[in-house]
Amino acid sequence: QNTSGQNTSGGGSSFDSDPDKDKIPGLGGSDYPIFTNIPQTSFACNARMAQSNMMFADPETRCQVYHVCTANQKFSFLCPRGTVFHQDTRVCQWWYTVNCPAQAQQVAHLRSFGAS
């Protein structure tokens, strides 16, 4: 079983199907990430992010992990299987309701304005 959270099949499955019988639409590891622990990623907080009082989806985990930036630390959290983090609602939602690439653009935008 792939636990990397990365799409390994190249195909993806139908939203209406549950090929792995886990009661979550789609195929775990292909349609949505299946991390069981928070992986090490290159995500780093900058000064603007720490001041924004926001939570940030981590695109390297296909948004299953999110981070809270504070003045001195980064706190990381893992969404449950089949869910990914939505920055606007600040909750983990079903994978098929969140546009992870759009979340990644929001993070990149904040980083570009707070490079300190």
From TrEMBL:
Residues 42-102 form the Chitin-binding type-2 domain. One of its GO terms (molecular function) is chitin binding. SMART domains: ChtBD2. This is Chitin-binding type-2 domain-containing protein. One of its GO terms (cellular component) is extracellular region. Residues 1-29 are annotated as: Disordered.
